[in-house]
Amino acid sequence: MSKPAYKRVLLKLSGEALMGDDPYGINRATIERMVADVAEVAKLGVELAIVIGGGNIFRGVAPGAQGMDRATADYMGMLATVMNALALADAMRHVGITARVMSAIGIEQVVEPYVRPKALQYLEEGKVVVFAAGTGNPFFTTDTAAALRGSEISAEIVLKATKVDGVYTADPKKDPHATRFETITFDEAIAKHLQVMDATAFALCRDQKLPIKVFSIVKPGALMRVVMGEDEGTLVHV
Ligand SMILES: Nc1ncnc2c1ncn2[C@@H]1O[C@H](COP(=O)(O)OP(=O)(O)OP(=O)(O)O)[C@@H](O)[C@H]1O
Ligand SMILES: O=c1ccn([C@@H]2O[C@H](COP(=O)(O)O)[C@@H](O)[C@H]2O)c(=O)[nH]1
After folding, report:
1. What is the pLDDT of residue 1?
2. Do the annotations mark residue 175 as ligand-binding?
3. Which residues take part in binding ATP (predicted)?
4. Cβ(175) to ligand 1 under 6 A?
5. Whole-structure pTM value
6. Measured from the CA of 14, which atom of ligand 2 is nearest?
7. What ipTM was predicted for this assembly?
8. CA-based Rg of the chain, rounded to a whole angstrom?
9. Is the CB of 59 under 6 A from ligand 1?
């Protein structure tokens, strides 16, 4: 059997994808399917760190956040990612994967704080590390957290698992004529204002020469194909 293309990866899992077909929250069947995909890859011996988004919970409470100051709303968003991280770690435990959740904001009674050497130790021990609470700072996103943590742990690639199967000329959910790039440079993605990831995340990965693969987490087997280095999704590169 061929070997995985990477030894250590940072997987950014879409919070919104966790909803499945529900209007918000965590869909049980969806999280179980995602975890099954993750388990397959972990069993190959690939060191896996995960950053999880919060869109499935945060967009559900967003109407109530209207009129709030931005930083407060952003802290709510970060807490939403902690809930997703706990659910993800628990679902992994059910299939025999040891996961450790580390939070960028201090909530020690719930999860341990992010400490870089400890995260590296867990990865070397074969545990899956789930980074919760994004960067710990308002005005950022979990895509930027993926770029940041991916750089910190010397991941070989950031795998952005989302609801679309790559980077398109425009949002494919809004523009039926949008076409998919097989590869695109960071500079092009930033210059074209492609909204699939925020510019801060693109710029950090570009400066750290950390490639990004954007692919669909909804498509069966796509994560495995990406990890095996097969043709899947869009590669964003320097
Ligand atoms: N040029 C583009 N190419 C591909 N997708 C795009 C583009 N522009 C906008 N999008 C949208 O970006 C979305 C992915 O980014 P977004 O940050 O919203 O979601 P996510 O990271 O998957 O979710 P969450 O924030 O919940 O973690 C896609 O679902 C797609 O609809
Ligand atoms: O570093 C961060 C990460 C996230 N936030 C807030 O959380 C929500 C949810 O994250 P998504 O990346 O959209 O899934 C985000 O909208 C921010 O409000 C943050 O402030 N800082």
Report:
1. 66
2. no
3. 12-15, 55, 59, 162, 168, 171
4. no
5. 0.97
6. 14
7. 0.97
8. 17
9. no
Ligand 2 within 6 A of CB of 162: no
Q: Name every residue whose Cβ is closer than 8 Å to that of residue 64 and which is 6 or more positions away in sequence.
A: none
Pairing of strands 183-185, 212-216: unpaired
Q: What is the DSSP letter of 136?
A: S
Residue 161: what residue type?
A
Reference 56, options 71, 39, 77; nearest CA is: 77
Token pair listed for 114? 């992010």
Atom of ligand 1 nearest to the CA of 54: 26
Neighbouring-strand partners of residue 5: none
Alpha-carbon distance of 50 to 190, in angstroms, equals 24
3-state SS class at 23: coil
Evaluate whether 57 touches 15 at the Cβ level (below 8 Å).
yes
* Tokens matching residue 201: 């995340």
Q: pLDDT by residue (tens digit) across 34-47?
A: 999 999 999 999 99
